[in-house]
């Protein structure tokens, strides 16, 4: 039947043109027509003009979200991590190099000691099952053995030098090996573990155990990994718009960053426009993503300056207080739709940044025009997020904080705000904690499967297909009243357990 004849719901341009600032929970898509299986949905996408991803997920440049471990796992999944810049440029470059030196989907951070060292307390193992022994006791020398914590516990003379009871290592594997290649090298050392070594950096990178290999093999299939033109894991870096950020940029490029994001709450500034032009004229082959923006006008200015991608969201983040403090921002569904509507004319991909707390939000962001979603809190409680787990009121949590929180600004003041030390600092974010979520290597594939099911309900088999169905007014939306939102959630039960997978 002719779809126009059964007019129902609102096309996006009418819904978002009514003077309301809507966010994801305010709106709901009406289902369309299914003529393909959910597994046929292709979520591959563009991060920026020249960077393709197989999974539309980006880890936010926040110091409680993205360092090497997160960036490696996101790239292995087919997404990307953007390394934060609340550190010195040398520290940020070291993180980028660490990502570039790996090919397995995780970071092991081995405890390394020398042959004459002694282990005096179990704490020295940290959370690792063993200690790696190298000739000089540093990462920059030849691995010679391992000491398993069980062996250490079983000894009567636990303070003996490690050389007297370590298990010798016959071989190591190049850190450019993928997991199956590393797994094959395990046999050379009796099957229990193998160090990986970067020939370029001349140092030990990881210590992979049999248990690591089994853990990864038991995971759902990861996406097609994201690689840069250098053939290494893709990784991005955040930077600012100050004069000293030009020097930072040089460090980042030398370390191998594949894309930079100019990190600001209000990107439509003379500082950012000049920095975009500087980046493009200095490194024409490097994609630069501008933002944040929430209006068509802001977007247009950054596109004209040469931005290869736009980051959208102001005040929508879980830790953000910008709308409260500054009275400026926009509901995230409206912001994503409005900016995407402009950016698509120039072929500039949009990142929907902030406010993602479930797979439904990801579907909404992508269908409303974004090419990727950037997440902070959704990834912050994972094993790959920086920081250690703590217990609060019996719950296992990790710290998560806004980059505009006083605590983050104080930490970064030397590196980021040189010369600003006399100014009054006003927080635009909070410090908090999020619950343990396990590994992103597990929950992102499940989340992507849920997103595919959402796309299937809408009859959209890919992101470009969803965008064109929305633009052509085939996909329809409605605003949900408060009661409809309650109805859309779990309700009326005395108790329940919510387990998605
Ligand atoms: N997405 C969001 O809603 C928000 C995000 N944030 C996050 O907090 C962090 C800090 O954000 P912002 O404070 O917006 O960072 P920012 O670096 O853009 O701005 C800090 C201050 O420096 C000024 N500035 C920047 N470049 C300059 C230059 N070359 N010369 C003189 N002044 C210059 C800006 O105008 C602003 O007053 C970022 O990580 C950002 O992502 C903060 C608030 C909201
Ligand atoms: O107003 C803000 N004050 C802050 O201190 C702050 N820190 C991060 N961000 C932004 O929030 C995004 C992450 O949001 P979610 O946790 O909701 O994913 C991030 O990706 C940022 O865009 C901030 N916004
Ligand atoms: K907020």
Describe the structure.
With 501 residues, this protein is α/β, with parallel strands linked by helices. It folds into two domains: 12-105 and 223-487, Aldolase class I (TIM Barrel, Alpha-Beta Barrel); 117-217, Roll (CBS-domain). It has helices at residues 12-15, 68-77, 89-100, 149-153, 179-186, 210-217, 244-255, 270-282, 296-305, 322-326, 332-343, 359-367, 377-380, 406-416, 440-458, 463-471, 482-488; strands at 27-29, 45-48, 51-53, 57-59, 80-83, 111-113, 130-134, 143-148, 167-168, 173-174, 193-198, 203-209, 236-239, 259-262, 287-293, 309-312, 350-353, 372-375, 390-392, 395-401, 431-435, 477-479. The strands form six sheets. An eight-stranded parallel β-barrel has the order 4-5-13-14-15-16-17-18, surrounded by seven helices. Helix 2 packs parallel to helix 3 (89-100). The longest helix has 19 residues, at 440-458. The mean pLDDT is 94. It binds 1,4-dihydronicotinamide adenine dinucleotide, xanthosine-5'-monophosphate and potassium ion. The site of potassium ion (K) has 4 residues, from loops.
What attributes characterize this protein structure?
32% helix; alpha/beta; binds xanthosine-5'-monophosphate; 501 residues; TIM Barrel; eight-stranded parallel beta barrel; CBS-domain; 17 helices
């Amino acid at each position: 039947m002719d779809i126009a004849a059964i007019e129902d719901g609102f096309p996006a341009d009418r819904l978002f043109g009514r003077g309301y600032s809507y966010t994801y929970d305010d709106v709901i898509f009406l289902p369309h027509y299914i003529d393909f299986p959910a597994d046929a949905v292709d979520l591959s996408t563009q991060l920026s003009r020249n960077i393709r991803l197989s999974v539309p997920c980006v880890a936010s440049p926040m110091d409680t979200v993205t360092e090497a471990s997160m960036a490696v796992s996101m790239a292995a999944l087919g997404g990307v991590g953007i390394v934060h810049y609340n550190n010195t440029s040398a520290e940020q470059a070291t993180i980028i190099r660490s990502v570039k030196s790996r090919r397995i989907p995780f970071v092991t951070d081995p405890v390394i000691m020398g042959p004459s060292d002694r282990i005096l307390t179990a704490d020295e193992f940290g959370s690792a099952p063993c200690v790696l022994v190298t000739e000089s006791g540093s990462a920059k020398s030849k691995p010679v053995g391992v000491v398993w914590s069980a062996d250490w516990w079983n000894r009567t003379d636990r303070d003996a030098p490690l050389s007297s009871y370590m298990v010798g290592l016959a071989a190591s594997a190049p850190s450019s090996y993928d997991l199956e290649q590393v797994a094959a090298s395990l046999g050379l050392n009796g099957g229990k573990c193998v160090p990986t070594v970067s020939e370029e950096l001349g140092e030990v990178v990881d210590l992979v155990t049999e248990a690591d290999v089994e853990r990864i093999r038991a995971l759902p299939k990861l996406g097609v990994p994201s690689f840069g033109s250098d053939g290494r894991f893709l990784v991005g870096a955040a930077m600012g718009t100050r004069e000293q950020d030009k020097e930072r940029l040089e460090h980042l490029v030398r370390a191998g960053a594949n894309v930079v994001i100019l990190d600001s709450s209000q990107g439509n500034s003379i500082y950012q426009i000049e920095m975009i032009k500087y980046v493009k004229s200095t490194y024409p082959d490097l994609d630069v993503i501008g933002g944040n923006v929430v209006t068509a006008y802001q977007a247009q200015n950054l596109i004209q300056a040469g931005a290869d991608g736009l980051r959208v969201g102001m005040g929508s983040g879980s830790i953000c207080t910008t709308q409260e403090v500054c009275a400026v921002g926009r509901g995230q569904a409206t912001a994503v739709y409005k900016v995407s509507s402009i950016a698509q004319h120039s072929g500039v991909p949009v990142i929907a940044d902030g406010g993602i707390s479930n797979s439904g939000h990801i579907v909404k962001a992508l269908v409303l025009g974004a090419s990727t979603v950037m997440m902070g809190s959704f990834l912050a409680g994972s094993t790959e997020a920086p920081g250690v787990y703590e217990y609060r009121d019996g719950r296992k949590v990790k710290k998560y904080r806004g980059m505009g929180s006083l605590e983050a600004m104080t930490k970064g003041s030397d590196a980021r705000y040189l010369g600003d030390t006399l100014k009054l600092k006003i927080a635009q974010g909070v410090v908090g904690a999020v619950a343990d979520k396990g590994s992103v290597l597990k929950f992102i594939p499940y989340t992507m499967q849920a997103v595919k099911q959402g796309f299937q309900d809408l009859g959209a088999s890919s992101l470009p297909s969803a965008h064109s169905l929305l633009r052509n007014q085939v996909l329809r939306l409605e605003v949900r009243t408060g009661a409809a939102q309650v109805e859309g959630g779990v309700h009326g039960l005395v108790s329940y357990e919510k387990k998605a997978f």
